[in-house]
Amino acid sequence: MYGLKQRNLTASIMILGMLIMFTFITGCVDDEEEAVDEENLLEEEVEDISQKFGNELVGIDPGAGMMETASDVLIPEYGLDDYELIESSEPAMIAALERAVGRDEWIAVLGWTPHWKWAEMDLKFLDDPKQIYGEAEDIRALSRLGFENDFPEVKKLIDNFYINDEQLGSLMKLVEKKGDDMEAAVQWAEDNQDLINEWIPGDADGNGEEIKLLYNNWVCARAKTNLVTHILRDKMNYQVNKQMVEVGPLYQTLSDGEGDLMVHAWLPLTQANYWEEYGDRLVDHGPIYEGGKIGVVVPDYVDIDCITEMQ
């Protein structure tokens, strides 16, 4: 009898030990599976951010300085290797932005201020802690060499020509809404006649002399160029020849002396590559607008606030 009890006790102890060991192993497996599940969940969340943006960062003209900075600095510095930088144009970028906003979809674009889109859509810059695009940019007037001697009255106009964020924003918005750049510029000038009069030098008379203005197909360039054209033509008696070209050829044409003036040079960053190549044959007449900003822009409903969160 004693032997039987001893054998039963031994068997019970063995069974209990096996149960304890099984529970321990099961617990370890569960912990490992839970850790793996959490890791997979984090990976999925990371993947979801870039996927929400369609793995795209929508840009503008391929030759623009901001595009080179995005490709060479922004993307590698922030580890955005999963993103494709889309080459397009300002109108195409705006169309993509409007389409996404209309559908409440996520989109990331290279954007800037001043621009009329800020008054039309709820947008925000993503924080750029590495200051890839710097603090601020200016819009400057550039001319060919010898311009100030050939057009001293126009030089005075450009020296006086300065426009703030609210003024430029309203001009650009009017240009975009009107669909006729010159008509919009004339209306804006009529609504801001006191400001225009401050810019025009006294007793200015160009005697019908021809002056050639160069510009590219950016809304701010079209707005300011048509405004200056209106002033020169209708207020100062110049014959104005406007020519729209791409940014690169524009700088080359101006530096070759085949154009006289541009009033939309984005410096020191956006068009830095063109200034570096052609600047020694151009004259910088100073800023006509200060405080422009460049960066990654998203709709306000996108629930991230920093470029680092795009990873």
Quick summary:
Keywords: Cell membrane, Membrane, Transmembrane, Transmembrane helix, Transport. The chain has 311 residues and is an alpha/beta fold. It has helices spanning 2-52, 65-77, 90-102, 117-120, 147-150, 152-160, 165-178, 181-191, 193-199, 219-235, 247-255, 272-278; strands spanning 56-58, 84-86, 109-113, 123-125, 137-144, 210-215, 239-244, 261-267, 282-299.
Task: Explain this structure.
Keywords: Cell membrane, Membrane, Transmembrane, Transmembrane helix, Transport. The chain crosses the membrane at residues 9-27. GO terms for molecular function: amine transmembrane transporter activity; carnitine transmembrane transporter activity. By secondary structure, this protein is an alpha/beta fold. The chain has three domains: 1-46; 51-135 and 296-310, Glycine betaine-binding periplasmic protein, domain 2 (D-Maltodextrin-Binding Protein, domain 2, 3-Layer(aba) Sandwich), CATH 3.40.190.100; 137-292, Dipeptide-binding Protein, domain 3 (Roll). 51% of the residues lie in helices and 19% in strands. The chain contains twelve helices and nine strands. It has helices at 2-52, 65-77, 90-102, 117-120, 147-150, 152-160, 165-178, 181-191, 193-199, 219-235, 247-255, 272-278; strands at 56-58, 84-86, 109-113, 123-125, 137-144, 210-215, 239-244, 261-267, 282-299. Strands 3, 4, 5, 8 and 9 form a five-stranded antiparallel sheet that branches. Helix 7 (165-178) packs across helix 8 (181-191), helix 7 packs across helix 10 and helix 8 (181-191) packs across helix 10 (219-235). It is globular. The N and C termini lie far apart (73 Å).
